[in-house]
Amino acid sequence: MRANENDYQKYSDAIDRIQEGNEAMIELFNELEKDNPVIDLNEELLKNITRAKEKYGEEVIDQKINSIIAEMLSWLDLNESP
Known about the structure:
- Pfam families: Mistic (PF11458).
- This is Membrane-integrating protein MstX.
- With 82 residues, this protein is an all-alpha fold.
- It has two domains: 32 residues; 46 residues, no CATH class.
- The chain has three helices and no strands.
- The radius of gyration is 26 Å and the shape is elongated.
- The chain starts with a helix and ends in an 8-residue tail after the last helix.
């Protein structure tokens, strides 16, 4: 393929941008951390939560779940050292 100086520069710039994008993607990949759930919910419970959110709305169900968990944690003495 033949190219004049202008075409050559356009291709060179495009390759540079592709390389910058690849480097950015590699950097993002290297910074990924494993997402460990705070609570390991079983599959049936997850299905029921999803159904409840569809019926009553996410905000309502999230608020209720947070209230229940806060109440349960209030029963524990969390100030003690393990």
